[in-house]
Specification:
alpha+beta, Type Iii Antifreeze Protein Isoform Hplc 12, 3 domains, six-stranded antiparallel β-sheet, two-stranded antiparallel sheet
């Protein structure tokens, strides 16, 4: 065989081998990229679950998640059964350990109360309670309106004060109470998360018959400012009339009595002379 032809064939085989190797590597990397990731089963809610609910087997289901699992995901149903929900859960949502009360930490609404805090119930009107004005997780200010004690001669009339600021709503619902005739009636109740000191002031205001109003605020606005409050007299006051300037009385200091002039008679031998002197406090 011609040596030249043999050289050409060898080079062709080498090039073909290199091309086949490169194509095989490219196909292998693409097959690995399209290979489905490993999936794992996690516990999820089979329906919408409200805050304060104690989880039972009927509330749970399992879903598959590919790739990395969410932090705190619960893998076994027994790790969630019997624990209270401290944040609303939605259908198909993986249940995280941080959304449930600790094991042995109580069930229902009590499990959602942080250590050192208290849940205080506040009665509100139907506009606030029914219309969805306040829902769990929102931030509100608590305003009170009424007549201050011992204010018979108060010219401002009924007054309004900001009692608490930036308070978290824990739950909202209804409570059954009896009216004056003993008949049961539904009352809108909102549970707010407060400190023990704040709970004392809020409870005292409710027991004194003071009207309480919840004012919604932006959850990102956590700044609290001192609010002076207002009264009916200040609201209806004519702010266009300039206030009369108060007369200022300046007390005059009493004048010191001027000292009288005096004279001295000087005797020098047989001669006499008289010298007069003015008051040492009087300036010439």
């Amino acid at each position: 065989m011609n040596r030249r032809l043999l050289t050409i064939l060898v080079i062709a085989f080498v090039i073909a081998g290199l091309c086949a190797f490169m194509v095989a590597r490219m196909l292998g990397s693409r097959l690995q990229a399209t290979k489905p990731a490993a999936t794992k089963y996690v516990v999820a809610a089979n329906a919408d679950i409200k805050l304060g609910t104690t989880l039972a087997a009927g509330n749970l289901t399992s879903i598959q998640i590919a790739g990395d699992l969410p932090t705190g995901a619960i893998l076994k149903p027994e790790d969630a059964i019997g624990r209270g929900v401290i944040s609303d859960l939605y259908k198909g949502e993986p249940i995280l350990d941080s959304r449930l009360a600790p094991k042995g930490g109580g069930t229902g609404l009590a499990g959602a109360i942080p250590v050192g805090m208290r849940a205080c119930a506040v009665k509100v009107d139907e506009v606030v309670g029914v219309s969805g004005f306040v829902t769990p997780g929102m931030r509100v200010d608590v305003l009170i309106s009424g007549n201050p004690p011992g204010a018979q001669n108060n010219q401002e009339g009924t007054q309004s004060r900001t009692l608490l600021q930036n308070i978290q709503v824990l739950s909202a619902g209804t409570d059954i109470q009896k009216d004056q005739e003993g008949k049961a009636k539904q009352v809108q109740v909102v549970n707010v998360l407060v400190t023990p000191e704040q709970a004392e002031g809020l409870t005292l205001a409710q027991n004194q018959g003071v009207k309480i109003q919840l004012v919604l605020r932006n959850p990102l606005d956590t700044k609290t400012d001192p609010v002076p409050g207002t009264g009916m007299g200040l609201i209806f006051a004519d702010k266009t009339v300039a206030a009369k300037p108060k007369s200022v009385v300046v007390a005059k200091s009493p004048k010191k009595p001027a000292s009288e002039a005096f004279s001295i008679e000087v005797i020098n031998g047989s001669s006499r002379s008289k010298q007069e002197f003015g008051s040492p406090e009087v300036k010439p």
